[in-house]
């Protein structure tokens, strides 16, 4: 074997394709195979393409681009795989290899570099975006833009997403998230809260409610100032070097304090955080530190259950369903705790939807860059939501939340159906504002 092919195999993590026996158990679990019906858009089809590149049968990596780009990265295939194929590692390696060789136009390259190096990793920059969104809403510009029809002319269907973006908090309220919030009553745990980048900019209210819920449940809550983006968006975009850099920054920041858990409230962020040890497995000076970090990483639902739940008030009966975050289900393997919390609320009837584990089509920015494919998946999801006759869809990830809000609009059900993050729903039930 020549040195170039050997190096390419290592870059693509070719050895991780060996356990795939092409059995097809992954096919029914794959949303893109279900909606597109093409072998190249299934997990085993994508793995086979990587194998062919690693064996020198395909020499042009651009052949991989469309199949990998159209993959949601939901990793449902890993959950059903009988041989334990690490599909997520193969996917990320393939995307990184494609990205290293792709020639972007100067404007696109500049935009990518700005977003991934200057914006997402910077809490200051993300706060500025959050404040700008608040000004856009409160100044009347938003109302004017919507009334004029300008939103409908935005590229990539951005106007549709703008319409379902939740209201942001004011700059004054944005600066009010305390560094330390004491537990109410007897302290059970000390936790460090991971605020995220998009969560903190666009969903700051959910972060605020998360801190209040944790405090109410008996946790001392610490918000570390120099934390940064988890790196999930970078990994999805094939920028693994930047992902590793962000992982190292977060590990260094959080290991400075002694806590029981590092808690997040976003399925995608949590999935990235719990895999820092795998991400840095080739860096001896970081792997043990990363393992200590991942051992402490928990979703907020897990910690609330460990604390014994929350004191809920009695409200009018309501029927709800739950859109499971792919990365919480398939990567973090957190499945029982959110449902347990929902079922513990008085007068709530929980109805599990059909194909509950199937992706909603959000997948980071997949629904923006692959809008039509995403909407096919969403429309199928909304059929199952409608069958439950629920009044509320509960989610545990910001992308899922926006996607389900968009689904509600597409179904013209904004008057009878709503979507809430689990944290919002729990806070509402516990009368925490």
TrEMBL record:
It holds the Pfam family CCG. Its cofactor is [4Fe-4S] cluster. Gene3D superfamilies: Alpha-helical ferredoxin. The keyword Iron-sulfur applies. Binds 2 [4Fe-4S] clusters. Component of a complex that catalyzes the oxidation of glycolate to glyoxylate. Its EC number is 1.1.99.14. This is Glycolate oxidase iron-sulfur subunit. It comes from Paenibacillus radicis (ex Xue et al. 2023). PANTHER family: GLYCOLATE OXIDASE IRON-SULFUR SUBUNIT. The keyword Magnesium does not apply. It catalyses: glycolate + A = glyoxylate + AH2; (R)-lactate + A = pyruvate + AH2. Residues 10-40, 61-85 form the 4Fe-4S ferredoxin-type domain. Keywords: 4Fe-4S, Electron transport, Iron, Iron-sulfur, Metal-binding, Repeat, Transport. The lineage of its organism: Bacteria, Bacillati, Bacillota, Bacilli, Bacillales.
